Amino acid sequence: MFAAGSAAVLRQSDFSQNVIGERTASLCTSQNCGIPLQQSLKLTRLIQKESVELIRTYKTSQGPMSERFCKTSRSDVPDPSISGLEPSERLASVSAVLQSFLPHFQRVSEQQADLQSPSSRLLTELSNVRNRSTSLAAVINCLYQSLFPNLPAPEPAGGPTLLPPAQNIFQQKVYGCVVLRSFKELLLNVARELRTLKGRVCKKRTVTAKESFRG
After folding, report:
1. Is the Cβ–Cβ distance between 104 and 77 less than 8 Å?
2. Mean of the per-residue pLDDT values of the chain
3. Sequence-distant (≥ 6) Cβ neighbours of residue 210 within 8 angstroms
């Protein structure tokens, strides 16, 4: 419907992702876990705030039935729960679940770009949250590498991400809302895990570093 506008939005989004990668790459070399942790918390809180407005905008743009169909659930959307017992396992789960959501966010953006006008507020908000979420996934991956350098890098939860098959317009609307709602729940879980990690791991590493310096 809006093919030209869709292409322009996606090209701008791809450019933004390249910029994000350049800005966050240097964090992987940091020996102080507090730096990527603080950046992760800051980004998570910002995306949380933006996701609330995004869901509100999404519902408004999908018509009067959106409040009802947004309460449904779908088995093809990732589970926002965080798993694991040890800090390394839980942070790996955070990273893996975040990575598994990104392709779904991309699919929603593509679908809505075909349904909305190029100047749609929804497209702008989707692009902003998607780009920040890509940045968050990169920063958390850097945090994981900094804290647990001898462990393998996390992969998307459940293996390669499987996206739903072709959908009609109503199915796209439902799918998009479920993805955004589940992602908002994930952000709450991520923020909680990062706060716990700050107290359990980064604080311990700081004390150990000070004792080593004194010795």
Report:
1. yes
2. 81
3. none
